[in-house]
Amino acid sequence: MTIGTHSNTKTNAILGVVVVVLALIIGFIWIPADIDTGIFEKARRRLEIGDAFAPTLATTLLGLGGALLIAEGLTSKSNLKVDARSLVFALGLLSVFAIFIALLLWTGPILVALFGAEGAEYRLLRDTAPWKYLGFITGGTFIVAALISFMEQRFTIKALVIGTVASLAMIILYDLPFDDLLLPPNGDF
Amino acid sequence: MSVLDYVWLGILAVFQGPELFSFFGMSVSITIAMVLAGFLLGIIVGSTPGLAGPMALAISLPILISIFGYSQEALLPVMGFLIGVMKGATVGGAVPAILFNTPGTPDAYMTTLDGYPMAQKGEAGKALRIAHFSSASGDTFSDIVLIVCAPFLAILVESYLDLPEKTALLILSMAFIAAVVGGSPAKGLISASLGLLIAYIGTGEDFTPRLTMGYQGVASGFPIAAVILGVLILGEVFKSIEDLWQENKKDQSLTKPVQHKASRLSFETIKGLFPYIARSAFIGTAIGALPGIGSTLAATLGYASGKFRHQKVQDQNATSFGNGAPEAIAATEAANSSVSGANLIPVLSLGIPGNASAVFLILAADSIGSFNPGPSVFRFTVDSVNPELVVAFGLFTMMMLANLMNWTIGGVFMRSMGIMALVPKQKLLPVILLLTLTAIYVQETKMAAVWFTIGFGFLGYFMRRLAISPLPLVIAFILGGRLEETARGAFSATGSDPWFLFSSYTSIAMLVAAVGVVFILSIKGKPSA
Q1: Chain B residues touching residue A166 (CB < 8 angstroms)
Q2: Rounded to whole angstroms, how far apart are CA atoms B204 and B202?
Q3: Would you call B185 an interface residue with chain A, using a CB distance cutoff of 8 Å?
Q4: Model pLDDT for residues B462-490, shown as the tens digit of each residue
Q5: pLDDT tens digit string along A5-45?
Q6: Minimal CA separation from A120 to chain B, in Å
Q7: Which of B8, B253, B345, B395 has the most neighbouring CB atoms within 10 Å?
């Protein structure tokens, strides 16, 4: 599946149509539904600019940009570079981020539940070494190693080592010198 | 307080800032050390293909704020570091371009055309010296123009423009940026309007925050750092990761060229290069003063202008452009380096960021507070001290200090940075990604900010893939709040006149220019920024 290639002259026009539709949805559904005041409103007997004014203006410009793009697309060649591989890449990257966040959030609490003192909670240990580093080291090592392996299309121990060293370096950079800073995900507990 | 008093206070603010250490009884301020540290880091970053000045600025900012806090005293050391990075990165880009035919920064591409052939002829050292000399000359010239022009422009704006004209000026600036920076004026307009829409989510004057879909996490808007770092940095990292994945390149094995000719620049050589440097410095400064047009276009125009002159005046035996002509390196490097200082003219005089680096200076000022770049900074008060004006002259002092560092130690440090081109991008990009996400979390202390950054990263990635520049989005996002606030003020000040934007000839002219620039460039095609 190819959304756009250099040879396709209509792809910018298609993108323009998508943008115009998006502008119509924002302008006629989202803005009226999610802003309490109008474009103008009466306050203390004076007419004032309402909260809907600026978003409506931005949406109008968005629609105008879309319309111009349709006109451009009908007359010039496209330089769009989104194809099926880009979408596969984006989904793959999103999966890597999902695992990264899961490791970040849950490594600490799970290890505290398994190996911590009886009744210990991660929330109370979020600023105590080594517990506070567990999620960051596993998550950080994972994301760096996974992306290096992804780009090189092979897994190496070197990638794992770079991930671990990078995570440790960031702990040294952000956590050790500053008492008031919290590494991810400790501020959320 | 006279103008000279303000200049002197600015200099003192830099040199008599908090003491870092004492050297033979002389106090060395932490601000000077930060300018130096930023400058050296900038050269390292510029010399590393795949890293760029804005990335270093993005990663450094939260660390700097953690160290220095949010007090007014933090402003000059933090801004000094960022200015140092900006200037260092400009110089560093030429190193891998000359030694390995790989531009460290996009604007150094033209340097590869003649720098690499010179290196292959055994003249790498000479090429690096020419690049440094030209770059430092262009940068210094550009800073002088900034120091002279910014206050005048600001005073002019503050004296002659009222709220309706200021609103029209903001619209004109955004239209100009959208028209010249985006993949096309239409795409620039889409990018800028998306930036405005994002800026208006969760803000407003009503009790109920607008456009939040009931999600309280954005009730006070998206964190500014999450939007900027996501769209500008993560978007670029994602795109580079995909490019490398598709290329499936293993680590590069680059060999440093052998130097076997004298590298010192004689007075005669410098004299021969001077017309090229001067011409390019003017071109780069003029381009830099316009918001949105980048150093890549300046380098291209500088190169083209140099080539034209070279063909006219040089004899037949001289090395032609593209085959290792020293004049070509001088023309390119002077042009791309002279953009950086002039790019701060719209930032300091109008509060409008013209490029990615300027965006981070505004972000720093916004995060720390007590300094709002814009025309109000240059209020030369007589009875009392305007602290923002002192900061502005402090910034000018730090820029000149960075230039002094560039002229003295910059060349030596730059020439030793060839090794940075050997750092493989495949290993560097994931580390930058983790560093950016950590920096965001440390600043915002909530996972939602990390999610937002990743989300905006994907937005930036798809925009790049659709050939839509993300810079108008970021600039419009930064200016969106001010545009609405100014429009509200102008509406009230004109007695709720719905035609307030057409209340004076100046604002009408600006609006006509805004519409004109978008439509003319739509029809004729835009210059590549």
Answers
A1: 430-431, 434-435
A2: 7
A3: yes
A4: 999 888 989 899 989 988 998 999 999 99
A5: 444 457 788 899 999 999 999 999 999 999 988 888 887 77
A6: 23
A7: B395
